[in-house]
Write a structure and sequence with these properties.
This protein is 28% helix and 27% strand. By secondary structure, it is an alpha/beta fold. It has one domain. The protein has a 6-stranded mixed sheet with strand order 1-2-3-6-8-7. A hairpin with a 3-residue loop joins β7 and β8. α2 packs across α3. The relative contact order is 0.16.
Length: 230
């Protein structure tokens, strides 16, 4: 990705040219600040709380001139008709680097996984992988999206291992539709945070060409009285 313009001297000396790992660590750390999201909470409400926690986390890391501007529920419009065609859940822009077209540096979509409901667990992996989840990143809806995008998996029962298995199984089933170019599962990545459940999927999608999606599994802490109710 070509970055143009100038940066604040302090940030230019301290921050790395690639901000992905910094963003992932911030997400995982900020997640610990989010009040425990009960199963009945939908993605927008959880994501809104996560955004507030991300802002708080960033401000605790940088006394002045923090590197990112963090937005949620950002509308995408057809450039010819002005019609809204999609909304991205979280966009992270660089405050001191301008990317042509006012493009965000990183975009996240979010989905709940392992949702407790009526005493059972709904994996919800189809929604995660489908049109409303990964499909938003792969369908070319976000014409302003740069190379970096990912999924935030809110694991509602606190079991990321089973959530990851359900997603991998769905990836295998939808291998062709998703244009997976390597293994049909989430693979390890050097950029991913320490959790072994995080990783990437590699795709080749039409005009997008080669495309990487990052996956971060964020576990809901189990209430003392058991699983949250649906």
């Amino acid at each position: 990705m070509k970055l143009t313009g100038t940066t604040h001297q302090f940030l230019g000396n301290v921050l790395p040219p690639d901000y992905r790992q910094e963003i992932f660590v911030m997400v995982e750390t900020a997640w610990t600040r989010v009040p425990n999201p009960f199963a009945a909470w939908l993605e927008p409400r959880i994501t809104g709380l996560l955004r507030l926690a991300l802002i708080e986390e960033q401000e605790s890391r940088y006394e002045a001139n923090p590197p990112f501007h963090i937005s949620e529920d950002v509308k995408k419009r057809d450039p010819k008709t002005g019609k809204e065609i999609e909304r991205s859940d979280v966009e992270i822009c660089l405050r001191h680097h301008y990317i042509k077209g006012q493009k965000p540096y990183f975009v996240f979509e979010s989905k709940r996984l392992n949702i407790p409901y009526d005493g059972r667990i709904k994996p919800n992996a189809d929604e995660y992988v489908g049109e409303g989840g990964m499909g938003c990143l792969l369908a070319g809806h976000y014409e302003t999206v740069p190379n970096f995008s990912g999924m935030l998996a809110y694991v509602m029962d606190g079991n990321p291992a089973s959530a990851r298995r359900a997603v991998d199984q769905t990836l295998q089933r939808m291998n062709t539709q998703l244009g997976l170019t390597k293994t049909a599962r989430i693979e390890p990545s050097n950029f991913s945070p320490k959790s072994r459940h995080n990783g990437i999927t590699n795709h080749h999608i039409g005009t997008l060409g080669k495309f990487v999606v990052f996956h971060l599994f964020l576990s809901v802490r189990r209430p003392k009285n058991g699983l949250p109710r649906g």
